[in-house]
Amino acid sequence: MKHLASPAEWTLGVRLFVAQGLVLLAAIATAGAVAALLGPTLFHQHLIDSGHAPESPEIPHIEQAYFDASTVSLTVAAFVATGCALAVTYYVTRRIRQPLERLSEAAAALSQGRHEQLPIDPDAGPEFRTVAAAFNDMSNQLKETEQTRLQLLGDLAHELRTPLANIKAHLEAVDDGVADWDQETRTFVLAETEHLSRLAGDLNEVSRAEEGRVTIERHNQSLADIVADVIDSQRAKYEAKGVALRLDRRADAIVSVDAIRIGQALNNLLNNALRHTPTGGHVQLSVEDDGRTAIQVRVTDNGEGIGADQLPHLFDRFYRGDSARRRDTAGSGIGLTIARALVEAHGGRLTAFSAGSGEGATFAISLPRGPVEANSH
To answer: Does residue 324 sit in the same domain as residue 246?
Structure first.
């Protein structure tokens, strides 16, 4: 026995036609019932009012003619209405089916990794234009996310390759008897292992920050005090390299921030400045107030500087430029990326400036003025 499609399996055209058919049946049934119940009585009364005697033999024939005419009229009207319903159903279904088919094709392509744009038909109506625009936005975001993921995987593979190769080479040398497991080899292997550990931790940190999963516990506090604490924690490293670390406390303001997270961002900037400032150089932190809506913390060094073509890419993960300001073995290569993500999580901005190679660089954190109501992200 052939399986009959359930209503849930009906196509859009069938559903529209059935819906219109039910409306037509209800309308015709209502018209027929009203005509059958009220029509004969009213018609009979009109015949009496027009001068026919109640017992006139012509009245039954006239009333039968009225009944036959009403029946034929309703039947013809039902066929005409059904034809109109079919025509309207075909037209509406065709207009709706085409954009739906294009949406289905685009969704199928997206599921296969092809980020195709859904054409927006200006005649499809505002609802379909809204759906198409939303789909295209989603497709673009997924494309950007996929590109970022692939780039991250490629960069991560590249970053892991060097320390792993170094560890493997030293261990093989010890195993083959070419080298001894002395303090120098042990220190080198531990340093490379620490670099891998730091890289894994930084990758997790930047992913959480950029995806909005980092917890921000805001408290109203002095920004200058946060900066002073960061300088105290960095001073020993700067003294060891012979780089002067200065604080120019021009202004102070109460801001609503997570002191640990902002301190982490500032530490990353100071670590970056120290790596690219030679012995005898200096790095200065300054707290500046524009007097309007933002307060800035600037980290300025007189080190290697940054070329104009490097500035737009400084905060990209694992970015390498042609200048000397490229990642060395002391960093994971994403400290600036983490710093920017943490600042943006506070509603602020992190920007970089440099007059060029050899002219030093300035990194500026701009934060909204406070105090404001504390919240978390």
So the answer is: yes
